[in-house]
Amino acid sequence: MNNNPLSELTPVFFLQTFILELMHASEQQGQKHCEQLIEHIAKTAGCFFEETYRENTHKNEHLDIESYTELILGIKNNIGGKFSLASSNQDCITVTNTCCPFGEQVTNFPELCRMTSSVFGGIAARNFGYAKVEIKKSIARQDGKCEVCIYTNPHAAKGHAGMEYTDTTPVKEINDINELQCRIESSMQRLWHKQSKQISKKHQSPAIIAKSPMMQKILQSIEVIAPTLATVLIQGQTGVGKELIARAIHAMSDRCHKPFVTINCGAIPESLIESALFGHEKGAFTGAIEVHHGYFERAEGGTLFLDEVDSLSPAAQTRLLRVIQEAELERVGGKQTLAVDVRIISATNQNLESLVKQDLFRNDLYYRINVVRLSIPPWPNDRKIYLILCN
């Protein structure tokens, strides 16, 4: 007789049941909704798995092919799969599997293969810059086994079917950079007019000047990442327009009708930064004569831009990490937990990876805010650029 009535309730069984019931529920919303749900779950989970792997292996740099392969095989095999490496080189990794983590039910939901594609592709794109995932064989299609090819070189991927990924999102092909710039500026114009109460012909919205190939690539990235939930880290020298890029991402996102709130973390004294970010209750400290709503609460439903994020104190970093992880906060001096729905865009003119190595910035926070990174080039020593600005 089995003394443990819950002996069959293993983590793998729980995961299978949870995902399959979720699929049943989303089926009623249509296939497109179902695929979007799978994509979102997979990308979010992939970020978490990679972060956990990095913490356990102390890897701060981009993963190499060997580490990437170890990670994706570990993810699938730890949830009940039997994945193994078939072949590997700098351009393509091929893995096979003989046991689906979702069991026989996967034949009823072949869309679940998209979860594998999104986890493998999202992690690969973050580390190699590009990925295309081709599922050649699938247990869901009754092929008897799975065979998955992950291409990390766009030239090697040509002619192969599959989902493409860049950073954490599928690639969108942009043919006309001028058209793209007009779309972004139009979105920013609408946002600027909405937020400005003193708009006039002389008071126009800011514009992004994108004449260099690097800036044009950043415009392409803005359109790709704006509709997602991914956190963004913008790196660049002082004065290159990091806040302008953040506003463009917000303007192009589904949150454009909600607040865009900006805070310069370096301009607020260390003793006040937690109160500024998370708010405080009446009587929390001397001078706290009323409840104060912090920047997170003011940005509810919208975007919070953390400029000079590198200047946050260790205590503030710890609280910020918890808010990002749990999507909830407690005001200083408070006991009530408040749910928050805020997209985080951070900016810095420092090398955060270097600060992490010096133990001046939390490693786990760095990977939370650095799901997508945009590096803004410095001002060019080109007289033509300044003539364009003057005009």
TrEMBL record:
Q: Which UniProt keywords apply?
A: ATP-binding, Nucleotide-binding
Recorded hits in CDD domains, A to Z, give: AAA (cd00009)
Choose any GO biological process term that the UniProt entry carries and state it. Answer: regulation of DNA-templated transcription
Extent of the signal sequence: none
**One Gene Ontology MF term:** ATP binding
| Stored InterPro entries | AAA+_ATPase, MetOD1, P-loop_NTPase, Sigma_54_int, Sigma_54_int_dom_ATP-bd_1, Sigma_54_int_dom_ATP-bd_2
Q: Where in the numbering of this chain does the Sigma-54 factor interaction domain appear? A: 208-378
**Name used for this protein in its record:** Two-component system response regulator HydG
